[in-house]
């Protein structure tokens, strides 16, 4: 886990806008702040929040669209408290699509005015719910020209999470069998498309309303976990299982579906929850021990590899994701958009599960 450093988020009463290739002269902008943990009502859209100076490897992005990820609503509610509470207020948001407004002195891969998209790592304190987001150069890439900013903003964080599991951890190859537990969410849906593009045979579990969409994305079998017995409906063994649900029952099922030497990967690692419970000094080492114990247990009992998987910055992966988008092989549908001024309403809709799919905030 990357440990963030404290940043200064101070309010001012003036704004300026100018930039050059080596530094940002944008002084203030709008941003959604989280001054304390709680429900959607804690979100505060401030008109004049300081834009920090750019480091040499950083890029200032004029945000046009930012998507809401489950991590955003969980962080707002206090997930990762041990890490983020001393740093409040924080700015939520990981995904962004927009234009380059300024670049640090060492940045060479993008230029001012270029349309880009990307995602911040999970522990970033200054997120993307702001007119001007700051990302390291290795966390953005040119936006696929075939996608709008709204469409592009829905992709990077979810796709990079899936990419890390399937490509970096399991190292999937053509012809392998892959099971995605919970394919209806953004990470699961991205994983299906990445695996299909690799030439794998994909099965998935999902709600009945998602079966048609996942089958159209290339899943050879999509099983409604509510109306069917998954362990009866799905036949054979798999080379890798990505479990986006991560409860004990899906863990048991996923591991039993694996071949010898297969990979089980869950999104529901315990690092943040244990750190929140016991503090960073005790919680993070305890999480390492907990993961290691499971790795040893399943290696000896089932002959498989077990791992918690998280999104990590991966510029090579992001470039490949862009190529898949450009080829029409990867897309995450957006169910609804809100203006950034209605961020509370957007979070409330996600909390109440009124909108099952992706929600995107637009910044004019």
Automatic annotation (TrEMBL):
Domain of life of the native organism: Eukaryota
Checking InterPro entries in the record gives: ADH-like_N, ER, GroES-like_sf, Lipid_raft_assoc_Zn_ADH, NAD(P)-bd_dom_sf
Concerning Pfam families, the annotation shows:
ADH_N, ADH_zinc_N_2
User: Gene3D superfamilies annotated for this entry?
Assistant: Medium-chain alcohol dehydrogenases, catalytic domain (3.90.180.10), NAD(P)-binding Rossmann-like Domain (3.40.50.720)
Which residue ranges does the record assign to the Enoyl reductase (ER) domain? Answer: 38-361
GO MF annotations for this entry? oxidoreductase activity
PANTHER family recorded: PROTEIN AST1-RELATED
| Name of the protein | Enoyl reductase (ER) domain-containing protein
Q: Taxonomy-wise, where does this protein's organism fall, top ranks first?
A: Eukaryota, Viridiplantae, Streptophyta, Embryophyta, Tracheophyta
